[in-house]
Design goal:
With 276 residues, this protein is α/β, with parallel strands linked by helices. The protein folds into 2 domains: 2-169, Rossmann fold (3-Layer(aba) Sandwich), CATH 3.40.50; 174-273, 6-phosphogluconate dehydrogenase C-terminal like domain (6-phosphogluconate dehydrogenase C-terminal fold), CATH 1.10.3660.10. The protein contains 10 helices and 8 strands. It has helices spanning 10-22, 34-42, 67-77, 98-108, 148-160, 171-192, 207-213, 220-229, 231-254, 257-273, and strands at 2-6, 26-30, 48-49, 60-63, 86-89, 111-118, 138-142, 165-168. Strands 3-2-1-4-5-6-7-8 form an 8-stranded mixed beta sheet, sandwiched between helices. Helix 9 packs across helix 10. It is elongated. The chain starts with a strand and ends with a helix.
Amino acid sequence: MNIIISGLGIIGGSYAKALKKYTDHHIIGINRSPEPLRQALECSAIDEIGSPEDLKRADMIILGTFPEAAVSFTEEYAHLIPKGCIVTDTCGIKSQICPRMVQLAKENGFTFVGVHPMAGKETNGFASSDADLFVGASCIVVPCGAEEAAVETVSRLAEKIGFGRVVYTTPEQHDRMIAFTSQIPHVLACAYVRSPCCPAHRGFSAGSYRDVSRVAHINEKLWAELFTENREALLSEIDELTKNLGEIRSALEKGDRQELEELLAKSRRIKEELGE
């Protein structure tokens, strides 16, 4: 296939590198700034630098941009996308963008399949991209009513570039679960490192500090957009976390060691039952 990747940051760049490493597809890169394109061409992550006009010859388009940018790009250039072309995104939220992308697909004759690769790093940009970023990771596929053949094409491609599991879901279920598995840990990490103790952690910290604080190294523009567009599900998870913290705080304030042990044991059993 001719596969166009729009947006060569860490995710789009990793898609390009993985596709070149594990498949024989022809990869065309489009990016707002020229430097990532130069780097991608230099390291053979893409076969050529493209422009919107090249969308006319695309069999698949992968949108490796922020959610609103993905929709805006598609709105602007939908008239250039061939009928039957498969368009996928890589966005961390789905309920806000999937209906708009599906409508654009219906109006212009292409096919949209939502995708969310569950992989990343604390650093960003093409320089952080990795051909093996997706190896063993989960790929969430949101069919959005697309034909089975298109969904199968997207799923097979994910498996070829190393994803260990393909999970199918709806936009609503995706956003509910992502609020818990991805967004609330980022909220927690950002709140945690705002403690006045954080600057003095060296010499006192080990694995626990690293585990909790790791994702506070955050792309604030991206995550503010993701948080805002998934605010109902995320607010619900923040409320749940606050409630659970409150229970531990209450037991501690009362000096009730028995209650505290019971709360901690309940958490331990949950992890043990999950086998993790």
